[in-house]
Amino acid sequence: MGEIIIALIQGILLVLLAPLVSGVTRWFRAKMHTRKGPSIWQDYYDIAKLFKRQDVHSNQSSFISRLMPPLFMGTMIVLAMGMPMMTRLCPIPLLGDAILIIYMLALPRFFFALAGIDSGSSYAGIGSVRELVVGTLVEPSLMLALFVAALSCGTTNIGVMGQMVASGQCANPIAMSLAGIAFAAACYIELGKLPYDLAEAEQELQEGPLQEYSGPSLAMMHLAMPMKQIIVVSWLVAIFLPFGSAVDLSLTGLLFGALFFVLKVAVIFFICGIIENVVCRVRFKLTSRQTWFVLAIAVCAFAFCVLGI
Amino acid sequence: MSLAITAAASILVPFACALLIVLTPRKADEALCITGAAIASIATLLVGWSFASGGMATQTFTFLAFGGVPIMGFVFDKVSVLLAPTFVIIGLLVVIYSTAYMRPTNREHPDEPRRRYYAFMIIFIAAMAGLVYSSTIIGQLVFFEITGACSWALIGYYDTDIARKSAMKALIVTHIASLGLYLAACILFIQTGTFELTAIASLSTGWKTFVMLSILFAAWGKSAQLPFYMWLPSAMNAPTPVSAYLHGASMVKVGVCIFARALIDAGQVPEVVGWVVVIGGIITCVFAFLMYLPQKDMKRLLAFSTISQLSYIFLAFGFYIFGSDMAFVGGIMHIFNHAWAKTLFFLIAGAFSCTMGTRMLPQLRGVLKKRPILGVGFAVAALAIAGCPPLNGFFSKFYIFAGGFQAATENGALMFIVIVALIETVGCFIWFLKWIGSVLFGEPSEEVAKAAPLPKAMSAVFVVLIIMTFCSSFIAAAWLG
Amino acid sequence: MFLTSVLLSTVGALVALLTGRSESTAKILGCSIGAFASLLALMSGLQALFGPVATFSSGTLFFDFSLRLDPLAGVLVSVISTLAFVAWVYGFSYFDDYKGKGIGAMCFFMNLFIASMDLVITSDNAFWFLVFFEMMSLTSYFLVVTDQDKASILGGFMYLVMAHIGFFMIMISFFIMAGITGSFDFSVFRAAKFDPGIASLIFMLAFLGFGFKAGMIPFHSWLPQAHPAAPSNVSALMSGGMIKIGIFGIIKVGFDLLGASGCQLWWGIVVMLFGAVSSVLGVMYALGEHDIKRLLAYHSVENIGIILMGVGVALIGWAIAQPVLTVIGLMAALYHLINHAMFKGLLFLGAGSVLYSTHTRNMELMGGLSKAMPTTAICFLIGSLAISAIPPLNGFVSEWFTYQGLITVAMTGDGIVKTVCAITAVALAITGALAVTCFVKAYGVTFLGAPRSDEARAAKEVPGPMKFAMVFLAVICIALGVCAPRIVPVLTSAAAATAGQAVAGTTAGIALVNPVIDSTISTPLLAVLLIAAVFVPWLIIKGKSKGGVKNTPDPWACGYNPTPDMPLQASSFAGTVHMFYGPLYQMRDNLVAKSPAFKTFFAGLSNWADKAQNWGDIALVNPTSKFVHWLSRVSSKLEGGDFRVYIVYVVIALVFFLVLAVTVR
Prior knowledge:
- The structure holds 3 protein chains of 3 kinds.
- Chain A has 11 helices and 1 strand.
- Chain A is mainly α.
- Chain A has one domain.
- In chain A, helix 3 (63-82) runs parallel beside helix 9 (215-240) and helix 9 crosses helix 10.
- Chain B has 2 domains: 1-267, no CATH class; 270-481, no CATH class.
- In chain B, helix 13 runs antiparallel to helix 19 (456-480).
- Chain B is globular, with a radius of gyration of 21 Å.
- Chain C has 3 domains: 1-250, no CATH class; 263-542, no CATH class; 610-664, no CATH class.
- Helices cover 75% and strands 4% of the residues of chain C.
- In chain C, the strands form 2 sheets. Chain C has a 3-stranded antiparallel β-sheet. Chain C has a two-stranded antiparallel ribbon with strand order 1-2.
- The relative contact order of chain C is 0.07.
- Chains in contact: A-C, B-C.
- At the A-C interface, strand 1, helix 3, helix 4, helix 5 and helix 9 of A face helix 16, helix 17, strand 5, helix 21 and strand 6 of C.
- Strand 1 (55-56) of chain A pairs parallel with strand 6 of chain C.
């Protein structure tokens, strides 16, 4: 029973706090550009403003465009319910399987790309294709890193994986570390931050697949996309950096777990912020070189796993 | 006894009809021929029926003896009683077809129905029945030579330069081959004092090998195997019903029939003979298949196809010598099946030349749209030859291959031959499928679009043959057990 | 009941052929009898899944005609019957497009096709198995060439030739078994123990032979040529049903017939590697296609690869003596077999509906069809989601079990097994991502955006029977996914029965479980949560949309008026993918380009044969006749014509005989 409450709280909190995370990111970027920048609550003001506007779609679009934002958000909420954020183990273990998470992330990507095509705008279409193709380039590394993790920890449930890592029981520590690095790199690409900002390359594609969105739909997307970023980061944290999360459901444990979680996510976003503000976007044609490199790290990890170290 | 009389009737009645054809005015020749063939068919079927109801026991009757030595006789066993009605009934169907083919309306070879055609056809039918029923080697020789003579007359029927040359070539090549049979007859008589084929079993190994190889020599010649194959493609200058009957269904089967009879009567055959049969068979098979590739004339393609199918039958007999009974059953079934399928195929070619004026395959397209029955017949015959179930060819080929595998498990070198035969069968399938795709489908080509209507006699014959091509395998399997 | 179904199909076939003159009668009779027959077969298939093994034996013509309906056969029969039923219902309206091309013949061949497929699955004798196998190929050949244009004839030719080659390999495999055991009955094969070397030969021949039928790489080239040419419901049957018979054969030979001989590790590794390569290359080539049915055909190659991965897991599990893994792997393979049949059938029927409305298969000429054909669009969307393995639909469940199988095998296997499993898992992941790309393209380019041609503008929704067929399959896809906890136990017991092992516990309540490592998911729970989690935001948006949703502006085109060629086309996708995966396409082009060499070889052979065909004449007949002519010319000199020479001959002869008489005395 307690777990269900935690799951629901996680979902609701994620919805409420995601714009804060994206707001802080914007503020951080401004600071790195030595600008004054917007306040950290700016994204809340934007979302509230957008909700007041009318929902306009292009005349070629169909129900897909209207379905996509709720679907994206709904999927993120469901993922949040299964992700171990405050706790070591998954609040709802049935939703915490690594492979399920990969394919659950594919669901919103499918509709996101489809919506781009649906609007009939050429920029949106290009953005969709790039989103999908980058997804295919990243999948192998993700899967291989998770495969190594699964082999080392003896399970595909990310909560149990985190438990094995935290208690030091997982086999092949070096392989796990390398897998963690590869996974982190793959996740960074998934986050869609510079230099892998390919779907919504603003300077090239004018916002990409979200180009024809406005009003409440756009507001929901502005909510949902930071949610996705947080989910991906907490995925990484849950498997490879589980230290500090609550091992039981006691109130102190949960509070400490939440605190550590926020700290870990903050550190990771800080690092991401530094990286994304000192590079420019990768040339699309050359993206595969970098993904091959990440895959190579993952293959190294696997080799170590086979060797048993 | 009654079996012998009925069998004799099936041979003598046609001869009588031939005589009548010569004596009566021209208008009656078609009717006489059909009557004679029909009576002979019924006779052979009666033989079959009474044989079956008599418990399928092998019986022999000698009706001509000289000083205690049987010269000519009848043998009734499963093989002869199965094959005789086949050849005679196919003969009847071909004669019915000829009444529609040998007409001035024929676009490629307009002609009148002449007496010599029908006379020689009916003699031929009689000779086939006689050959299959024959229990002595002299009997086989007599009918062997009669078929040779009829074949000469019928191949050269159109009396052009090339027809005469082809007829002469056929006669001489097969006659040289028949020397083998003469030699075998002499040796048999000298060694055992009788002409009966069952005496082969009592020969010593060396003489048995010699006799079997001599009979094989004759069989190769008559069945157009290497090195005697060259008369068959040239024999395609004969009228198409003749090609269908002689060179698809019956005369070329004479070779395999005499060899089959020799095998049945020989008991334990030395392995040397087996090797000769199998190696000859596979070389002919591959050669004939390679010769498919440049053929554009449908009849020449069918001629080479006949050669390769007969080589399958020889392979089956070879496998039987190496110990596989299944292969022998497969060989006999293949004789039966191939007769029906090849006759159908040749008669379709005849229908093409009769109603469309050409039998060149590249010019025939879209047949299915214009003349569905010809299209269906073409597909059925081609698939039967290629060995595709549920047509008949598959079942006999399956038995032959199964038998080959059986024989090869004891004799490793045979496996190579079986594999080559399998590859050839796949190649044959591919080649015929290509022609099905080319000839049957799409829009009719010019010649096809201008086709004359198909005579009723031809359609009726095609229907019977198509049905038989589907069913013959089941009939043979039920008969042979 | 099964036999009634088969007989009914045959009756239906003959009826359709006989009423061929009146095309609508033939269509109605053929379709109704066929649909009824398939329902009967479906019932018998389900019975076999749940109940005991049913056998039937009849007399011996050639060889024993015996049938056996065990759980494995039950799975296949159910799948094929469902597809057959849907195909017949669909055909009620779809065949109207084929008026003038012989609907009677089509119904004839289709009935026989379905009947022979059912008989192949249930045959318990090698001979009859082969007979019905080849009949299945032959009847579908005639269905493929229905259009009778060059592409169809070539497609049919390639198809039947490759099916035939596969058939021969299977035949040799059976001959080896029959040669050793002395009988053609499967029951005898089942009990026989073969040497490891012979068993490997048998398995490899059967694997490659059935692989031709299944369409795995490198024997796949007939698929993209044959499936587009056939009518769409026949393509659905072929792609959803017939190629599964290839998988069925591999499972049958590997687990059932060679059951007593044991299995070797390298078999499973080979099967898995073939599966991995097929799945990646299949989806890669699909991405490059603009013909919607060719795209779907290549996807069949991909999914066969995924099924083979499951079979590979099962074989490896058996070889390393882990019975639970065998069951899991086999169950994953069977589940994906069913799922693929359902969603591929649905997709082909959807493509058929699009073809019916727009009369083109070229995706570049479509667009904006979801407004004109809403039912088709939604069904196609469900099919696309299912094939992309999006939870909670059916494709995801079987792929999850495949992943679980791979991970579990890797955990218990040695280094080589770990590596192969890792390669396969990565291949499966790439496949999933590429499938998402491909179906976003397929759905998006066909149904979304603006219409790009007059045909697309004029498109209308399809008639009732076709809609019913598609919706039926869509509902099944959803049900197979959401109700997976009910379906998995049935399949697990079927898999266990086939592998001869104990049933593994693969479900617990509403959860699907991997019993070895205790991983769990729950598709019903996921479905419920997703629906709830999506519904609430959707309500919020609906509530908040002031003034409703406005739908009038053109998409932004940087200030220009948008033209139809501006948005994304199918080629844009292909071009982008080509950027990164170019070498794989290059490889295919290189291999196809080898055929000119083959053409010249063939032409050379033909020329040689043309010259060689008369060697008998040239070598034997002509010299002999020349010799005889020479001899006769020479000896004719003896006949000088002058009678005085003849008198000299008489005198010489007389003298000779006198001398002879004297010396002999």
